[in-house]
Amino acid sequence: MGIAESGHITYNDLRITNINEKDVIRVIELNGIFRRSQVNVDTLADLKLVLRYSFILTVSTLFSGNHFFVSVPRIRKEGAVQRILKDEVDQKCLIYILRTHQGSNLLLTRSQDH
Question: 3-class DSSP state for residue 32?
Answer without folding.
Answer: helix
